[in-house]
Design brief:
- The complex is a heterodimer.
- By secondary structure, chain A is of the alpha/beta class.
- Chain A is built from nine helices and ten strands.
- Chain A has a single domain, classed as 3-Layer(aba) Sandwich (Rossmann fold), CATH 3.40.50.300.
- In chain A, helix 3 packs parallel to helix 5 and helix 5 runs parallel beside helix 6.
- The mean pLDDT of chain A is 88.
- In chain B, helix 5 packs parallel to helix 8, helix 6 packs across helix 8 and helix 10 runs antiparallel to helix 12.
- The longest helix of chain B is centred in the middle third of the chain and has 37 residues.
- Classes of the chains: A alpha/beta, B mainly alpha.
């Protein structure tokens, strides 16, 4: 059974003559427990797909079925307890005046979770933060610690699907690896399905089984990570991306 | 000594163990920031002094503020046991000043409870909702902003009748639009940030987002603006009193006292000057306090 089915998704911004299609007729499936990567240059529409699934962009057409629920213009409360999102910039995704405790307990209260106090402890433990971080404000945390808090918030309601919008691109290289490993561990522990957006093929290769390569709002091709590693890309654009990312490592 | 030291350590600990401790600790740190600013503390002391004067007016007053004695009229400060002299009806200015502090502080508190709240609600709703709600609310705000403040207050008082409560209402009605503007501007910068998206994804409704997530970020700039505006509010109240549309005689409101002293200002300077100094002192105190509040309430200020 597939966790996410997207069919002919088109997302646009603006109306009339100023209409700009950010995503054009995109279709893909993500199986239960799979990790699917979306790569492409900036402006290729990869983040927009995530935002449309999460309900943050109301102007879309096509068919989206997520966790067995066909999505309309509004998302139900049950949807948000199954699907959560981690944002790109951990400096912007935490309320500057709320402690870690407040952020997590409010998320849990909204989802009607019980035993909030003990759950916060285990949640912080899950993302590798000690109890000492519980009453800190975001400005007292480093970028990596903030992103861990953001991941903890996304996990507060025990979702089955996590949408990851470049969760490591705003972080230092050493911290990136820590967060990626955390995401790998969490996926196994909580049996999560991921859709991960990134412009870094290495990051996606580490975390995902299949990759959708995007260009100008369309899928250039969808290939498995094994094919990518074996350099079996068919489209010239994907080859170009692969080559440039290999060159940048050398 | 050891218990106060223990309390201090408990408040300044890096890792609070309970919600209550974390909250007290952040208040205490804010107080330390406030205390480090000497001018702000001076403002706070002046304000505390005036509030104490108002509270203990019956104890501190040497005369009945309403008792007239035409034989003792227009005495200079210090004469016959009148600290600040007497006014044209022989009433003791010092005692009237103490009782007048009650009225002035009462007016300020009432305005401060009404105007920023109205502005906050109008501004955040308008900024967050957008669309036609924004257009309607902001045009109403523009209409109120277009009038000079004192003139509009005058019109309201003229329509509602003179008196302290109506003066308060009139000042509040003219004071809210700037707060609405500030709150709306803040809301517009906040509403599209990721932390608002994140709480939306937790299933929070617009009411919770506005009151729990947007208000706390607007309140700091509003509080600063309010403390800076307090002086203006007192002056408007005094102005209404001066024009005879605020507190009515014989009530010892400071603006009304200046208005009465105006007739004698060349020969008996103290009748108008002393309540003027009182208005100056309370305005200055609020200004200094407002300046210091900015340091405490700025969310980006790292006071850890």
């Amino acid at each position: 059974m597939s966790a996410i089915t997207i069919k002919d998704l088109t997302v646009w911004f603006g109306t009339g003559a100023e209409r700009n299609d950010a995503v054009k007729d995109v279709s893909f499936d993500v199986a239960d427990g799979e990790s699917f990567g979306l790569v492409g240059e900036s402006g290729s529409g990869k983040s927009t797909i995530l935002r449309a699934i999460a309900g943050l962009v109301p102007t879309w057409s096509g068919e989206m079925t997520v966790a067995g629920e066909t999505l309309g213009p509004k998302r139900s409360k049950a949807f948000y307890s199954k699907v959560q999102m981690v944002f790109q910039d951990p400096y912007a995704s935490l309320h500057p005046r709320q402690t870690v405790d407040r952020v997590l307990s409010e998320a849990m209260r909204l989802h009607g979770v019980e035993n909030i106090d003990s759950r916060i402890g285990t949640l912080l433990d899950d993302v590798g933060l000690g109890p000492g971080f519980r009453f800190r404000y975001p400005h007292q945390l480093s970028g990596g610690q903030r992103q861990r808090v953001a991941i903890a918030r996304a996990l507060a309601c025990d979702p089955s699907i996590l949408l990851l919008d470049e969760p490591t691109s705003a972080l230092d290289v050493s911290v990136q690896a820590e967060i990626l490993n955390l995401l790998v561990d969490l996926r196994h522990e909580h049996k999560l399905t991921y859709i991960m957006v990134s412009h870094d093929l290495g990051v996606v290769g580490h975390l995902c089984e299949r990759i959708g390569v995007m260009k100008d709002g369309r899928f250039e091709e969808v290939l498995t990570v094994e094919d990518m590693r074996a350099f079996k890309a068919t489209s010239p654009y994907t080859r170009h991306l692969l080559e440039s990312s290999i060159n940048s490592i050398r | 000594m050891s218990t106060t030291q223990g309390l201090r350590d408990w408040l300044l600990t890096e890792e609070p163990t309970s919600r209550r401790q974390a909250r007290y600790a952040s208040w205490y740190k804010g107080w330390l920031t406030l205390r480090s600013n000497k001018l702000t503390m001076f403002g706070l002391y002046v304000l505390a002094f005036l509030v104490l004067c108002a509270i203990f007016a019956p104890v501190l007053a040497t005369h009945d503020p309403f008792a007239q004695d035409l034989g003792q009229r227009l005495l200079a400060p210090g004469e016959n046991g009148h600290f600040f002299g007497t006014d044209s009806l022989g009433r003791d200015i010092y005692s009237r000043l103490l009782y007048g502090a009650r009225i002035s502080i009462y007016i300020v508190l009432l305005v401060v409870m009404v105007a920023p709240l109205v502005g906050l609600i109008v501004g955040t709703v308008s900024g967050y909702a957008g669309g036609w709600i924004d257009v309607v609310l902001m045009r109403i705000t523009d209409i109120f902003l277009a009038f000079p403040r004192l003139i509009l207050a005058l019109a309201f008082v003229a329509a509602l009748g003179a008196g302290i409560e109506n003066a308060v209402l009139a000042i509040s009605l003219t004071a809210w639009p700037p707060y609405a503007r500030i709150a709306r501007a803040e809301t517009l910068t906040i509403r599209n940030s990721d932390f608002i998206h994140a709480i939306k994804l937790q299933g929070a409704g617009p009411f919770r987002i506005v009151t729990r997530h947007i208000w706390p970020l607007c309140i700091s700039s509003l509080v600063i603006r309010v403390t800076l505006d307090m002086a203006g509010i007192i002056l408007t109240a005094a102005g209404l009193g001066f024009l005879g549309l605020g507190a009515q005689p014989p009530s010892p409101e400071w603006g009304a006292m200046i208005s009465e002293g105006r007739k004698y200002i060349l020969d008996y300077w103290w009748v108008a000057t002393i309540p003027g100094i009182a208005i100056f002192a309370i305005s200055l105190a609020f200004n200094l306090l407002g300046d210091g509040m900015r340091d405490v309430l700025d969310p980006k200020e790292d006071n850890s």
